[in-house]
Amino acid sequence: MTIGLPRALLYYRYGVIWEAFFKIIGCKTITSPETNKQILNDGIRFSIDECCLPSKIYMGHVYYLIGKCDYILIPRIASCKKRNDVCVKLNAMYDIVKNTFGDISILDYNVDNHNGLNERRAFINMGRALGCSYAKALSAYKNAKKADKLLYEKKVENQNRLLENNDKLKILIVSHSYNCHDKFLGYPISDYIKKLNCVSVFADAADREKSVVMSRKISDSLYWIYNKESIGSIKVLEDKVNGIILLTAFPCGPDSLVNELIMRKVRDIPVINIILDELQGEAGIQTRIESFLDVIKDRARL
Amino acid sequence: MKKIISFPHIGNYHIPIEILLKLIFKDSVIMPAPKTTKRTLELGSRYSPDFVCVPFKYNLGNYIEALENGANVLIQAGGGCRYGYYAEIQELILRDLGYEFKFVKLIGHDLHPLNMFRVCKSIGTNISFFRFLYYLLLVIKMVGFIDRTEAYIRENIGFEVMENSFDKLHAEFFGKLRDISNFTSLAHVTKEYEKAFRKIKIDKPENCLKVGVVGELYTAMEPFSNYFLERELAKNKVQVSRFITVTFLFFQKPRDIKKILKSAGKYLKYTIGADGTDSVERSKTLAELGYDGIIHVKPFGCMPEVNAMPMLNNIGRDYKIPVLYFSFDSQTSETGVKTRLEAFYDMLEMRRKSREDITKFENRVSWS
């Protein structure tokens, strides 16, 4: 059996777990390629105009996978812990795909801690739906989780090593991982920063648990966990970076308010807000980044 | 310093909220924000983030105008979608503008009577918890009655024989509500006005055009933000139904969420956030009830409602019912809304006519 994994949205957070889990229970996986023009265009074709850009890209990835696998994995994640909800777009992705593409086979799991469905149970249910035993599904989930944790710790460690290096400017990119690691959206930006001889570090590679705790220093009323993590990472890395780029996809609902919050509350470090949409040119963004870096360099010299 | 408590507008609900606050805070001045106007929206959008949804801008405009008039305690609720983030950002923006005030937030999980009482205490009142509960229940009952009355008005205002008879009585009704302070007087007023509204002469054909309004709560409930869409429809002699009311949101929905999800049938497997689920379920029900059209309203970029749109498209196709989508923003033109509504109305009428012709023809065929 082959499971298709769309390389968008939650893939950047849970991809490792998915791949490991399916490998252990004996399913093959196929992942859609990095986002390209074609995928974006397909995504736009199958989305409502007002959807956010990452969700449009997601639709493109799903469309790519149709016919290439037995099932497409579309998880539904509503809440992780108490008062740790997830953007409503991710609540609805399953139904959106189902209603847009009609008869395709979808494999889903539902994480909704408010209603007593935690991640472990969701994975076990999914494993059993695929025909393996409870024990096997449980051990697969545990091993997958372990593998993910190892990789994540390595990522954090690598980033910390980067941060210790003092001879280059360090720019923190605060964004959802599906924005800043996407080849089409965020990658050109971090790549360009590298070309300008600076280092880019990412909010999602800061220590997650520490970030969530630190986020209270900026705001204690946030209830979307991904926002908590990104906003907390600013507090965690504040003294180690020279500037912050808020990378947002148009029209991201939570970010529209959280960015405002950051810009009004984080005052002693330069912040720039870059909004990505499907029509942008590369040159415009490069100019903005270049001038932002120039400003930071000037500040450092004073 | 005397406390002047203020809050933003949504539809006619400023009246029951004002009544409640007046009962609780006897020594303070209760002043709902000045009426929403074009200026409110302009002020609000000037200081708002770029692509935040439009209710944020209205609320912020309301606050600024209230502060200009001397308010010093502001109240904001929140929860569900990014609405829960409103309070904090609005407070920040207003503080950065240099105003001084106390900001009271009642976010999602905080809407427990005990907690609300605590918040009221912190603003400054000396009533007991039981008194507070009494007033709260009184106003909840009142809101229920207002919702029922307004639903009746909405469905019939287009067919009134004497112009403005509904509006006149409506205003009078709200005037009477302001004096209520116990359940007996509420029961009297309820009885009196239930009769009075039914007594208004209407000339309603049995097969009038019926349109349902679904969508995001603020744009559906605040007539200024949807450019008086319901009124515009009623002018064309259309029966308008809308289900999103405060009673529904606070009392019916939490209880019935599982039922709602089930009733949405094949269109939904999971809830899709805030009011999106209801929009889908309501549209399906309306289509099954034989309504002629559905109007879906939302502010630009509203996440739950955008989520609901693919399902609405499918419902429109499966049940052959036209769906008109409106996306409101601070830049929406009133003429544009009117033109689209007119075209929608004409289309519904033509569909109705052609369907009648077909049935006539079929009858003739079966006769011969």
Summarize the structure in words:
The complex is a heterodimer of chains A (302) and B (368). With 302 residues, chain A is of the alpha/beta class. Helix content of chain A is 54%, strand content 15%. Chain A contains twelve helices and eleven strands. In chain A, strands 2-1-3-6 form a four-stranded parallel β-sheet, covered by helices on one side. Chain A has a four-stranded parallel β-sheet with strand order 9-8-10-11, sandwiched between helices. The longest helix of chain A has 31 residues, at 134-164. The termini of chain A are far apart. Chain B is of the alpha/beta class and 368 residues long. Chain B has three domains: 4-127, Rossmann fold; 140-204; 205-368, 3-Layer(aba) Sandwich (Rossmann fold). Chain B is built from 14 helices and eight strands. Chain B has helices spanning 14-24, 38-47, 54-68, 83-96, 113-123, 129-156, 165-177, 183-199, 217-221, 229-235, 246-263, 276-288, 303-319, 334-367; strands at residues 4-6, 29-30, 73-78, 102-107, 209-215, 238-242, 293-299, 323-328. In chain B, strand 1 (4-6), helix 1 and strand 2 (29-30) form a beta-alpha-beta unit. In chain B, helix 1 (14-24) packs antiparallel against helix 6, helix 6 (129-156) packs parallel to helix 8 (183-199) and helix 7 packs antiparallel against helix 8. The A-B interface holds A 48, 50-52, 76, 78, 83, 87-89, 91-92, 94-96, 98-100, 108, 110, 219, 221-223, 250-251, 253-254, 256-261, 264-265, 275 and B 49-53, 56, 81-82, 84-89, 92-93, 96, 105, 107-109, 267-274, 276, 300-304, 306-311, 313-314, 327.
What's the helix and strand layout?
The complex is a heterodimer of chains A (302) and B (368).
Chain A: E1 2-5, H1 11-24, E2 28-31, H2 37-45, H3 53-65, E3 71-73, E4 76-81, E5 84-85, H4 88-101, E6 106-107, E7 110-112, H5 119-129, H6 134-164, E8 170-174, H7 177-180, H8 187-195, E9 199-202, H9 208-218, H10 225-237, E10 243-249, H11 253-265, E11 271-276, H12 282-301
Chain B: E1 4-6, H1 14-24, E2 29-30, H2 38-47, H3 54-68, E3 73-78, H4 83-96, E4 102-107, H5 113-123, H6 129-156, H7 165-177, H8 183-199, E5 209-215, H9 217-221, H10 229-235, E6 238-242, H11 246-263, H12 276-288, E7 293-299, H13 303-319, E8 323-328, H14 334-367
Parallel strand pairs in B: 1-2, 1-3, 3-4, 5-6, 5-7, 7-8
Helix pairs in contact in B: 1-6, 2-3, 3-4, 6-8, 7-8, 12-13
